[in-house]
Amino acid sequence: MNERERLRDLTDYQILDTAQDRELDEIVEIAAAICDTPISLISLIDDTRQWFKSKFGDNVPDESPRDQAFCQHALHTPKEVLVVQNPLEDVRFKDNPFVTGSPNIRFYAGAPLETPKGNVLGTLCILDDKPRTISEKQKKALMLLAKKVMEFLNARKIILQQKGEIELSAEKLRKLTDNAPGVIYQFEMTAKGSMYFVFISKGISTLHPSLRPELIMKNPELAFSVIHKDDIEMVQKSIQTSFENLTLWDIEYRVVMEDGSVSWHLGKANPEKKEDGTVVWYGTFQNISNRKEYEQTLEQIAFDISHVLRRPVTTILGFASLIEKHEMDAIKLKEYSGYIKTVAEELDIFTRKLNETYNAKKLKLADAGK
User: Fold this and answer.
1) By residue range, what is the domain housing residue 303?
2) Could you give the residue ranges of the DSSP H alpha helices within the chain?
């Protein structure tokens, strides 16, 4: 037996110093009943002590030094029940404090708790205060009960490992959502109209510094309180429509910031309906102020081109048409050429100013996006 590996195996079970388990307490009580002994224990041995996970009987401490443990002698025989018929006649135990004093052990039998790796963690043992024997059927019963103990411990170990993996995955997901652009959330509304956020990422504090995830999950009305007064009814109606028709929730609305400025937000979510009528939305919030400003800039450009540039262009086209239709002498051509030059210069000045204006807006948008 490799003691280092055995101790590592024991540590992996995360069982030492844990609270009582009803299932294991019942097993030690059954063991005592089958073997008709006043004491039965589940004992686990670490590097310095034996610790009792479950106890049946009186005058038994929670733990004792390892060098006083009967069970440590069963660590090397995983397939056998260790039986000590009279410790007073056994050189290994005759001076043991549990033999010379309370609980005055005069009989011991311990079935090893063997792990799938072949290590023995301790024993399921029975104790008596008078010398006696144990039948083969009782030995077999102890081995079967010890196997049940290990089935419980192995199942518990798997559950703990899965819980750890779930917690790790949840932590990774939390980090991903917290660092994702915008906000990721889960929102629910019951058939009676009660609304609440099941989850909302930390991005909400970046979107609106006065909002924090833990506060919104306690009071979802906070998320609605920052919506522009002229948009709140539209937002509420859109949620109700999505609830009733299970249609994609996709809406742009304004939000009032702490300094009174206005930002544009985009909300998107896919609804799912539960059996109880509750609708769950999984979606995102994003700040689209830059996009809105960009769209407005494009609209202004289109307006300027359509209205401001139309007059000089029309004038030039008119002069060109006159020149084509009429024969003109050099003096008249020179006169028309002067008109065209004047209009062209006006057009050049205007387009330069237009270019400077939109370059400035472009830089502003770029800085806002950093």
Assistant:
1) 292-368
2) 3-12, 22-35, 97-100, 136-179, 203-207, 213-218, 221-225, 232-245, 289-303, 310-325, 330-368
Whether residue 135 sits in one domain with residue 108: yes
CATH of the domain at 194: 3.30.450.20
Interior/surface letters 171-209, b for 16+ CB within 10 angstroms, e for the rest: eeeeeebeeeebbbbebbbeeeeebebeebbbbbbebbe
111-144 exposure pattern, b = at least 16 Cβ within 10 A, e = fewer:
bbbbbeeebbbbbbbbbbbeeeebeeebbebbbe
* Listed residue (143, 66, 65, 58) closest to 102, CA to CA: 58
CA angle in degrees (0–180, nearest 5) for 58-59-62:
105
104 and 134 fall within a common domain: yes
Angstrom distance (rounded) from CA 71 to CA 99: 14
What CA–CA distance (Å, rounded) separates 227 from 231?
7
Say how far apart CA 43 and CA 233 lie, in whole Å.
67
What integer pLDDT is reported at residue 27 of this predicted model? 97
For residue 202, the model assigns a pLDDT of: 84
User: Per the structure block, which two tokens stand in for 265?
Assistant: 């937000």
- 19-28, 37-46, 208-217, 355-364 — which is least confidently predicted? 355-364
Residue 262 lies in a domain: yes
Q: Is residue 210 part of a domain?
A: yes
Q: Do residues 336 and 328 touch, judged by C-beta distance below 8 A?
A: yes
Is the pLDDT at 13 greater than 60, yes or no? yes
User: Distance (Å, rounded) from C-alpha 100 to C-alpha 78?
Assistant: 28
Q: How far is CA 223 from CA 126, 198, 255, 303, in A?
A: 63, 13, 10, 36
CA–CA distance, 94 with 98 (Å, rounded to integer): 9
For residue 103, is the peptide bond before it cis, meaning its omega torsion is within 30 degrees of 0?
yes
* Bridge partners, residue 189, by sequence: 195, 279
Using one digit for the tens of pLDDT, what is the confidence trace for 286-314?
888 887 776 776 676 666 666 666 666 66
Please check whether residues 113 and 244 belong to one and the same domain. no
According to the model, what pLDDT value does residue 203 have?
A: 84
Contact between 342 and 316 (Cβ < 8 Å): no
